Amino acid sequence: MTFITEYPWWFLLFCVATGILFAYILYGRKKFIFTENESKWWKYGLAFLRFLSTSLIAFLLLSLLIKTKKTEEEKPVILLLQDNSSSLNVSFGNFSKEKYAVQLTSLQEKIKDKYELISYNFGDELTDFSEPNYSEKETDISNAIDELITRHGSQNIGAVILASDGIFNKGNSPLYNRNALTIPFYTIALGDTTIKKDALIKSVRYPEIVYLGDQFNINVQIEANHLQGQTSVLEVISPDGKVLLNKVVTITEDRFIFQTDAVGDAIKPGILQYRIRLKALSGETIIENNADIAYVEVIDGRKKVLMLYDAPHPDVKAFRNAIEQNKNYQFEEADIKNYSGNYKEADLIILHGLPSAGAMTKLNSIQEIVSSNTPVLLVLSANTNIGQFNTIQKILQISGSSLNGNDVFPIYQSSFSKFTMSEAALKTIQTLPPLLAPFGRYQAAATADIFYRQQIGNIQTDNPLIIFNEVNGHKTGIICGEGLWRWRLNEFAQTKNFEATDEIINKCVQYLTVKGDKRRFRVHTPKNVFNANEAIQIDAELYNESYELVNEVDATAVVKGDNGKEYTYTFDKTINAYTINAGILPVGNYSILAKANYKGNANSANSNFSVRPVIIETLNTQANHQLLTILANQSGGKSYNPSTMLSIAEDIDKNATIKSILYDTFTTRPLIDMKWLFFIILLLLISEWFIRKFNGNI
After folding, report:
1. Does domain 198-299 have CATH number 2.60.40.10?
2. Bridge-partner residues for 59, per DSSP?
3. Residue 289: CB atoms within 10 Å
4. What is the CATH number of domain 303-513?
5. Distances from the Cα of 562 to the Cαs of 248, 275, 456, 556, 608, in angstroms?
6. Under-50 pLDDT residues of the chain
7. pLDDT score, position 181
8. For 341-356, how does the pLDDT look when each residue is reduced to its tens digit (9 = 90+)?
9. For residue 487, which of 359, 303, 319 has the smallest C-alpha distance?
């Protein structure tokens, strides 16, 4: 404890002197009616009480501060990751699950004595710890490690205990995870490293999207281990029950690999389901991996997207890379000065940096394109001639423009209703660098719908960044800035993918190319095929007479499986639409019938989706203990088997890098805030008064 004051410390002498002075004035010369000896000692005692009380009061006038130090200890946090994937349910090795559960509990209790232990289960995702049931359909070790760091990165992480078979079938290898290199990993090698007697469908390759009338190949690869000499039958069956392939397969080697093709016909639009079956063999360990399903979406035809520009620009490549990922679109790009094709054949025309000074000779063509019935997306750049831009369209006018541009950040408009974005994409876009937008005053048409507005620095403006308009069925979009290529690069640096940037580009393209849907009530799912471990999302929109989104009334949906079982739901209301989280449904094909009564009108809508099985955990059940050993060694930890896992606690104790952190916290408080000091002064004064009263002195 330390005293602090803004006055020189020699001022304390004045406080003492003040106490002495007051004591002398009161008791130095005054006569008392005590006996001679009593008078002397009572006088000294009273003088001392007065000295103390007066000095303390004087001290308080100096505005003394008390500085105290408190030392706190933060114990190391030990994080336990327990693999809960179904590959361990197939084969746990020589060590039984029951015995392992006892050992794991004992290890947790030993660690809790000295450290803070936090335990989790993991498979596809990280979950709170519970007794493992080994039911997860996918395993992503690297994601589990990243999630640990996200949750506990600010704490004193001492070590991670990873109990797993080392098999991962999703995400990246944990050996290349940067977070795994900074923390000691103590791994528990579970599962069995021996190759099981098994035959399985190793892979099925097929196009996810084909076009009506096309033929396509379904490539099937099978693998068999320790089944030499046996014979099986491989079948591929079409949606209408037609056998496309019936092949007798003789296993000629102890480790046997075979592949073949079946030819399918895209006979009708929609999602077609092709079943692949391999006849079970004698002695197989697993039979669940002897079947698979191929889901092929058949569409009527691809839409053509034409992108014209005046000069090469990295944004052009960003558009191309994003659009070409969607097989529903055929992408073509060209310099407008050299373009000789027929733009009327396109379903969407993207004009990048046009009109520009360099394309003056094509101004009439640009005007003709913008005025045609073909949807247009205008992307402004530093090359754009703003004056000509204002002339060729009436959706957005930019006045007072100069050669300088503004760095603008996107601000999402929650009232936007043309289409929806995923929550993950919206969050990611908020972290991306600014686009370069033309400087000036922006005036949007009253009929326009603004998707994003501009933020300049910390100031949110009314200027649109991405805007759409539809007049008499003709759709136009404008992106008021360049730099989408920076978005893709920055997003990849953050997330190792381009999903958010590609989603916003493809959503814009999708909206502009889709023909107007005049249905008052619509229902759909984000995708047509879900995995068996995915929650099913169903969305719906209801429109009034002016085709404005409303959700004033309740809406319901009946989901019916191909087995005849029905599931009834009530939609949850979003800002201006409806949504359902239908949870996880069994494998199969499903139809949706949604209903909503609005102003006396009974509205209904239909859709469908499929749920496919997830058998990835049964494709490889051979434990990868080598991965666990390498991970432990390169991180400064150690690898164990279930029989020696209890020694982890002792080895953590021996690791000098795993230690508590001491934090010193300093607190400064005014001395006058100390209530006990007030009571001391009061006690001194009362004692003095009582003694004087008791002896007849006032």
Report:
1. yes
2. none
3. 24
4. 3.40.50.880
5. 30, 15, 54, 20, 11
6. 33-35, 37, 698
7. 76
8. 888 889 999 999 999 8
9. 319
